Amino acid sequence: MTGAAAGFERRVHDALEASPSRIPVVLGGCGTGRTWLLQHLYSRVGSDRVQYIAVERCATTPERFLHAVTAASPFAGARPAAEPGNARQAFEALIAFFDAARAPDGGPALFLLDEVLELRTFESFPGLRHVIRELVDAMAASPNQFVLTTRYVARTHRLLRDAPARFEVMHVPPLEAGDIVEQLAPVFDGYERMATDDRDYLGRAVQALAAGRPVYVKAIGDALAQQAGVRQGGMPDPVAALATLLAPDGSLTAWCRFCYELRLHRARGYGALKAILDILAEEESLTLTEISQRLHRTPGSTKDYLSWLEDVDLVVARQKRYSYTDPVLRLWNRLHCRSAEPTQAEIARAVQLYALSRVPLRDTVPALAYAGVEATPEERKSWGIIEID
To answer: Which of 120, 223, 293, 358 is deepest in the core (most CB within 10 A)?
Structure first.
């Protein structure tokens, strides 16, 4: 591991090793590598000193969550002596467990809480109106160590605005081209025999197409390994790989649908929010007035909708103009949030235009697939793509 990824992991490790230790709060959208980071930390620290908790999987009721955490914990002597009588007691027992747990040598325990903001679901139970705030205060005073992750950036910044200084917010950086070259190396035969310039360009191209998100990089790499031309020693085609992944049965189509629905179900105004996302999928960097006119709603109500989309990090405002936070999700929305499935030609054309807007050109550009794309010779010439019969 090189570049930004290695540097970021060192930063998390340094925060834990500080005296007193800090609490890294790792922020990043879907597919940015938050879970991978925690799993790598788990393997480095050792299973007797660390507990990984996938909060999103087991945050049902406070009582059941307490049981799930304590039953799987490597830390002895801190489990509740009796079953809690209600949700409030269960949450208090959880806080006590996080504070009292110790490693076998008596040192501090390390808890890795993946998607920690899912504990907000407990706030619908009696006596638990400020679960996250209480948890933050308890962790700040605990002798134990914690690493927290969440995909909800805006919510976390609001939560930690007045939090103790022990919390350190860290945004997962996108993968650099060097990291991507390293990841692609074992994907397909013959990669090591490629010219250095070709390897470097491929890394930059995949970085641009994937917006540096590990989940997209891995998917494109896996798809490259299946390309017939690559298996025969030909030049890999990441644009064709992305088009395959965004087909109706493609793996990124399923992934994007999951991320899209998950975030919308955490927000208010489901139908109106989808409409705004459709509008921004067609044209980005729109102002509030432009969006409200296309939505046929008042600027006031449109402002509310946009704030709810920002709250779950689906859109971002820069200089009062709104855009998607994830360009691949925008491309998926444009292709699949419609009344009928896109054709192969429509997918190929949309992916080519997406690539044109992001992938850097070079003096000798690898032939990028555009089979089925209906375009004029002038359009193809502007893409800087070599056509091979």
So the answer is: 223
Residues linked to residue 324 through DSSP beta bridges, in sequence order: 315
List the end-to-end C-alpha distance of the chain, in Å, as a whole number. Answer: 39
Task: Tell me which of 6 and 369 has the higher pLDDT.
Answer: 6
pLDDT at residue 366 is higher than 50: no
Listed residue (175, 305, 188, 293) closest to 237, CA to CA: 188
Read off the pLDDT of residues 76-119 as tens digits, 9 standing for 90 and up.
Answer: 766 777 788 899 999 999 999 999 999 988 899 999 999 999 99
- Collect all residues with Cβ–Cβ distance below 8 Å to 60 and sequence separation of at least 6: none
Integer Cα distance of 39 and 114 in angstroms: 10
Place of tokens 């808890």: 111
Distances (CA, A) of 197 to 21, 46, 137, 363: 43, 40, 52, 11
pTM score: 0.86
**Omega cis (within 30) before 20:** yes
The yes-or-no verdict on residue 245 having pLDDT over 90 is: yes
